[in-house]
């Protein structure tokens, strides 16, 4: 089955958002504000001592979990909009109410896989530390850094759809969700990578606008990723 191009997916995203930017912009602001408020409270409450450092790591973990749940809720809101369903701000708390442990476990698995992908580079650092006076040690470290980079990139692309798959199948096991994501991305990794890279230009415009442009850019990018997911599961073909 022929998949849609990046331009077609972006056109779909613009069509869905046209005249309806208010809700995703408001949801994006609310999400960012909630995350920043939590992180700010953590920095104020955590003591500045040795014990505070340990507590800080724990609270940072809690903040990361909260952020992941909230961002998944944001995807749920956009997914509802893309499907022509009623979308509301309360969609943001959907992951908090529906199998939140699955979202957390998926995030933990991604984190552990990322660490595993970094092992070659860590090995390179050890070799460099032991034989730093040898040029070959630096070459090996750089090569292993490149290996780790490509492992992380491959892993990120393979499991890029897990949270959207969770939203459609919240009671499915984490193992099955990750398997389905990897299966869906077979033959689509380069297409997805190209889609992400194609946003570099507009992201730079957002930076130039001192971040104000991201109020519109963030929903646009996120909605396009939602449309990519819908294309992967052949949902677009069912509209005709």
Q: Would you kindly provide a brief summary of this structure?
A:
The chain is 76% helix and 0% strand.
Question: Any overview of this molecule?
Answer:
With 240 residues, the protein is mostly helical. Helices cover 76% and strands 0% of the residues. The protein has helices at residues 6-17, 22-45, 50-82, 94-97, 100-117, 119-130, 135-158, 162-168, 174-184, 189-197, 200-208, 214-232. α1 (6-17) crosses α12 and α5 runs antiparallel to α7 (135-158). The two termini are 14 Å apart. Pfam families: DUF975. Keywords: Membrane, Transmembrane, Transmembrane helix. It comes from Fusicatenibacter faecihominis. This is DUF975 family protein.
Number of strands: 0
Overall pLDDT level: 88
Helical element count?
Answer: 12
- What would you call the structural class? mainly alpha
SSE order in H/E notation? HHHHHHHHHHHH
How far is it from the N-terminal to the C-terminal residue, by CA? 14 Å
Shape assignment:
globular
Uncertain runs = none
What is the share of helical residues? over 70%
The radius of gyration computed from the alpha-carbon positions, rounded to a whole number of angstroms, is 20 Å
The fraction of residues assigned to DSSP E strands is under 5%
The profile of the biggest β sheet is: none
What oligomeric assembly is this protein in?
Answer: single chain
Strand and helix map with partners:
Elements: H1 6-17, H2 22-45, H3 50-82, H4 94-97, H5 100-117, H6 119-130, H7 135-158, H8 162-168, H9 174-184, H10 189-197, H11 200-208, H12 214-232
Helix pairs in contact: 1-12, 2-3, 2-12, 3-5, 3-12, 5-7, 6-7
């Amino acid at each position: 089955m022929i998949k849609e191009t990046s331009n077609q997916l972006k056109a779909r995203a613009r069509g869905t958002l046209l005249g309806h930017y208010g809700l995703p912009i408001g949801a994006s602001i609310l999400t960012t504000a909630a995350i920043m408020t939590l992180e700010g409270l953590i920095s104020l409450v955590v003591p500045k001592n040795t014990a505070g450092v340990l507590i800080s790591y724990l609270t940072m973990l809690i903040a990361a979990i909260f952020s992941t749940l909230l961002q998944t809720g944001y995807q749920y809101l956009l997914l509802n909009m893309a499907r022509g369903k009623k979308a509301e701000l309360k969609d943001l708390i959907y992951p908090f109410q529906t199998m939140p442990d699955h979202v957390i476990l998926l995030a933990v698995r991604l984190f552990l896989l990322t660490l595993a992908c970094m092992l070659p580079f860590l090995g390179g650092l050890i070799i460099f530390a032991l034989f730093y006076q040898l040029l070959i040690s630096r070459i090996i470290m750089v090569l292993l850094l490149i290996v780790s980079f490509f492992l992380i990139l491959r892993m990120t692309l393979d499991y890029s759809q897990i949270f959207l798959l969770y939203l459609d199948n919240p009671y499915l096991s984490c193992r099955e969700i990750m398997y389905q994501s990897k299966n869906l991305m077979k033959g689509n990794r380069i297409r997805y990578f190209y889609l992400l890279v194609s946003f570099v230009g507009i992201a730079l415009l957002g930076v130039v606008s001192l971040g104000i442009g991201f109020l519109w850019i963030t929903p646009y990018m996120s909605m396009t990723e939602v449309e990519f997911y819908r294309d992967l599961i052949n949902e677009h073909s069912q509209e005709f």
